[in-house]
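Extended Data, panel c. Modelled sequence:
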Amino acid sequence: MTGAEDIPTQGRLIGLDAGERRVGVAISDPDQHLAVPLRTLERRGDGSELRDLEELARSEEAAGVVVGLPLSLSGEAGEQAERAQEFAREVAKRLDLPVAFWDERLSSQEADRWLTPPPGRRERRGQRRGAEKGATDVIAATIILQAYLDSRRLS
């Protein structure tokens, strides 16, 4: 596995929010200015999400991958962070691309805020629940990747 310094500064990057049930996927533009939501992959336990990522990386000509690292609020790596690191090792091996981590603290909460309707807007019963199933994951991946891109431009 590689570090952030090994991620090319040009070419599309894939951002991942790797949860236990789903993987949110975002992608950058080739100049690495903007991250956009791409899709959510279901984790079925058979490695199909890795095959899907491999196909996606090839078709988008990805130059690297940024994986969200779920640290605790105190900044320590716990069980979830270990699972994310293991997933990132599998991704790096399967895709043969440099992989970097980005601290994803609070990205899911931020994604939930993006998806919460403004006050006064009513939704039909159950509408948000169904639409939200994978939406939080793909928005969280976008937030992770955009934060990574912004940090590189500012440094």
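The beta strands are 13-18, 22-28, 35-42, 64-69, 99-103. This feature is highlighted in the accompanying rendering.
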